[in-house]
Amino acid sequence: MAISVDTPEESRDLAGKAGYTYPLLSDPKTETIRKYDLVHKGAGMNGHDIARPAEFLVDRAGIVRWRNLTEDFRVRARPEQMIEAARSLH
Amino acid sequence: MSRRFNWPLWTGFVLSVAAFASYFAFFIRFPATRDVPVPSLLLFAGAIALLVIGLRRATTRRVLAWIVTVVGVAIGVFFCVALFVGTKLLPASKHAPAVGTKAPEFVLLDTNRKPVALSQLIATPGNKAVILIFYRGYW
Questions:
Q1: Could you say which of A37, A88, B79, B87 is the most buried, measured as most Cβ atoms within 10 Å of its Cβ?
Q2: What is the β-pairing status of strands B107-109 and A54-59?
Q3: Looking at CA atoms only, how far is residue A19 from chain B in angstroms?
Q4: Helix crossing, B38-57 with B7-25: angle to 10°?
Q5: Which of B84, B88, B93, B111 to mutate to test the interface with A (most CBs of A within 10 A)?
Q6: Using CB atoms, which residue from B100, B132, B138 is nearest to A6?
Q7: Which residue of chain B has the CA closest to A71?
Q8: What is the DSSP string of A30-54?
Q9: Residues A18-65: pLDDT tens digits?
Q10: What is the pLDDT of residues B47-76, one digit of tens each?
Q11: Is the pLDDT confidence value at B29 over 80?
């Protein structure tokens, strides 16, 4: 699932336009983003705090098994990398 | 003769603008050309080569030729700084959950304003794992 500071309505528009079928969750107050230490201060429109891109694979025990913290926000984990990480769990 | 249209200069300038615009309009859509913008850099290299040829060829209106060249090259420099420096200005995230540690629990609203908990997603029968993707959003 994907998490951003967008409101549920904005996320719904995005999911509709892009055809995403996984849940998009809203964290407008950056509570969860802060908990994961992923706040990019003032990087949003009008200086709002937003999330820096990051991906985590969490297993059934709630343990992080793989993560990707990009050093360049243009460069994100590709779907095949995440699928590969998920496959390696078995 | 001296009033002849300086095509390398103006082609170089147009190419520089096109190299800049085409990245955001087109190449950004594909992971390969977004992450390592080889086509854009080649376009800029061509643009700068043409600008330099045009500048050397300019016998009249040298000031205009210089301005066009400097602006054309500046677009390329701005592009490189924005892409190779600007996008790396990210927080260190030293306390982000590491591999082998517990992912902090959270409850957030989905697009139907329904609360969704991480623990509940993990426990959903059939789910072997959960991928959390944090993204910048459209703010």
A1: B79
A2: unpaired
A3: 13
A4: 160
A5: B111
A6: B138
A7: B88
A8: -HHHHHTT-EETT-SGGG--EEPPE
A9: 888 888 999 999 999 999 999 998 888 788 899 999 999 999 999 999
A10: 999 999 999 998 888 999 999 999 999 999
A11: yes
Q: Which residues of B touch A35 (CB under 8 A)?
A: 104, 106
DSSP string covering A55-83? EEEEETTSBEEEEE--SSTT----HHHHH
pLDDT range class, residue B139, cuts 50, 70, 90: low
CB-facing half-sphere around the CA of B139: CA atoms within 13 A:
16
Distance of CA A59 to the CA centre of its chain: 16
Q: Chain-centre distance of CA A82, in angstroms?
A: 12
Q: What is the mean pLDDT of residues B107-120?
A: 93
Instruction: Supply the Cα-derived Rg of chain B in whole angstroms.
Output: 25
Looking up tokens 């040298």 gives B62
The model's pTM is 0.75
Nearest chain B CA: its distance from A51 CA (Å): 5
